[in-house]
Design a protein that fits this description.
It is built from 15 helices and 15 strands. It has 551 residues and is α+β, with helices and mostly antiparallel strands. Strands 2, 3, 6, 9, 10, 11, 12 and 13 form an eight-stranded mixed beta sheet that branches. The model is unreliable at 18-25 and 116-121 (pLDDT under 50).
């Protein structure tokens, strides 16, 4: 009886305490704080999971682990749109602007004096006069050397595109060597540049606002919780692969030529072209590969990690039908400049901790030249945003900018006696503009890499350093898996899937066990076996496999 009375007293006291708490408010709070009401619909949960994954990528400490983290969802790689520097379909400019969020403008014909500080000694006229003779001599030498190569047996088997690439490669290398020698005495930043010959430029990003293909629509229509969103736009993954003739890098950044107010103008973002159709309708192809971002060097491989200038090839335009017209040829050059510049800057930003899911915190600039040796097109590009996926197509106010010129002839021809005919000073002046454009912005490590907290060399565990480095380089190598991805043979589709005529067969194939091989994650594999004799643990039966260090 006493115990029962005690229990009743405790209940009464507890109820009074709860009642008192419900009536008393904290004087500092005018209103009680309620938990956030979450939307539990399928679409909202998918968006929440995607946002959490993007935040996980941002929290990964090192550059290599960020790239590994992006590749975690796919063991066999992503299905990507194949962007490259050797294929530009007809009417590709609207798609390129949509896929890079870029506004195009004409490049003003600025003099070289506007590109340099007022303290520089050489005037524009003296600069052109000094460089002119050396440039002409370099052109004549390049053609003379190419004539020597034409006499080789293997040159007879080369196509017109390959011959143009060889000649342009020689001209670009000779002009770059000449201009660095002539200008470096007055423009000291040229002494500090790093030159890459035929570098590897690759970049991966996601683009939103694209209509879903038929197989995606049919898949969603077959599920009750997704059939209402079957026609909604989806994200397409893009992988760019290119190899320019030559590129220059510097430890400092070029000065932006667009202000932050202009780059964040919502009116300009609404004027961007929208290409919602499947890119295969234009002629682009798709492929499966891992996401790679390579700006021509490895992470922490050099301090000169900002692009100054790159020279792109236009040899493949020889194969373009003449019926497309001059206007489409000009748009093809603009498309090549936009996507090559965007991809190079995106790969550089990736090595500073940014990616297609984590926004850039400062603008990045580069200069691009497209040439076949005789005709030269000049472009400047400013990267302001990397967020192109999902609703950012409509909601992101930031845009990227590109401005360029029409092709300018550097010379008319090389005569039979090896002399340069009708040399164009206007094209030389524009080329000098790019070389004397001095990089001046140098940021602190914390400002330059706000999302990079560490380096893999800082890890004390040698096995962890080796695992991360090996995994990152394997992904960047684009090598196929040692076992090919399982496929459905035609007879299986006919007799097992479309028509159930082999009911007595054992169900051993992946499609019979409801297994999707494309959903296999990067970390789903057999671990490396450690022989008993070299196991570090005292208990030899434990830790028979090497530990993995996936982020």
């Amino acid at each position: 009886m006493l115990k029962l009375n005690r229990v009743n007293q405790l209940r009464t006291t507890y109820k009074r305490c709860l009642a008192g708490q419900s009536l008393q408010l904290n004087p500092a709070d005018e209103e009680p704080a309620y938990p956030e009401i979450r939307d539990l619909s399928f679409k909202a949960r998918k968006q929440k999971a995607t946002a959490d994954w993007h935040e996980e990528i941002r929290q990964v400490p090192t550059v290599e682990e960020k790239i590994i983290k992006i590749n975690i969802p796919r063991y066999y790689g992503f299905k990507v749109v194949d962007f490259n520097d050797s294929k530009i379909p007809y009417n590709a400019l609207p798609l390129t602007q949509h896929y890079t969020r870029t506004v195009f403008e004409d490049l003003p014909t600025a003099s070289t004096s506007e590109k340099v500080d007022s303290g520089d000694k050489m005037s524009e006229d003296s600069l052109i006069k000094t460089a002119r003779e050396d440039v002409i001599e370099a052109l004549e030498f390049a053609h003379d050397y190419y004539k020597h190569l034409e006499k080789q047996p293997q040159s007879a088997q080369q196509s017109a595109v390959e011959r143009e690439r060889v000649l342009t490669q020689i001209i670009v290398e000779q002009l770059n060597r000449t201009l660095l020698q002539v200008l470096s005495e007055e423009y000291k930043h040229l002494d500090d540049v790093e030159v890459d010959y035929n570098p590897r430029h690759e970049a991966f990003w996601a683009v939103g606002g694209v209509d879903p293909p038929k197989n995606v629509q049919n898949s969603k229509k077959g599920r009750d919780w997704q059939k209402d969103s079957a026609n909604e736009s989806i994200d397409r993954l893009v992988q760019y692969t290119g190899t320019p003739y030559l590129s220059l890098r510097h430890r400092k950044q070029l000065t932006p030529w667009k202000s932050s107010a202009e780059s964040g103008d919502p009116k300009l973002s609404k004027q961007l072209p929208r290409f919602k159709h499947d890119p295969r309708t234009l002629g682009y192809s798709t492929k499966y590969q891992h996401a790679t971002n390579v700006p021509g060097y490895w992470p922490k491989g050099t301090e000169r990690n900002f692009g100054l200038l790159s020279f792109q090839s236009r040899a493949h335009l020889q194969l373009r039908p003449k019926s497309y017209g001059e206007r489409d040829l000009q748009e093809a050059l603009h498309s090549l400049a936009i996507k090559s510049s965007y991809a190079w800057l995106l790969a550089q930003a990736n090595y500073n901790g940014f990616n297609t899911y984590n926004e850039l915190t400062y603008p990045m600039n580069t200069q691009t030249v497209i040439t076949n040796g005789r005709e030269w097109s000049f472009y400047e590009y400013q990267l302001n945003t990397l967020l192109l996926h999902g609703n950012n197509v409509e909601d992101n106010p930031r845009i990227n900018f590109c401005r360029g010129t029409k092709p300018l002839p550097l010379y008319a021809e090389i005569s039979s006696n090896g002399k340069c005919v009708d040399f164009n000073d206007t094209a030389l002046r524009q080329l000098l503009n790019f070389y004397v454009n001095t990089p001046s912005i140098q940021r602190s490590i914390k400002e330059q890499q706000p999302y990079v907290a560490s380096d893999i060399n800082a890890y004390e565990n040698s096995e962890q350093r080796e695992f991360i480095s090996k995994t990152f380089k394997y992904l960047a190598s684009n090598r196929p898996r040692h076992l090919e991805i399982p496929e459905i043979y035609l007879w299986e589709k006919l007799y097992k899937i479309d028509n159930n005529t082999r009911a007595m067969d054992a169900r051993r194939r992946f499609f019979e066990l409801d297994i999707n091989p494309w959903k296999r994650r990067l970390d789903q594999h057999d671990k490396e076996y450690v022989p008993r004799a070299v196991r570090p643990d005292v208990r030899k039966n434990q830790n028979r496999f090497k530990k993995t260090y996936y982020p």
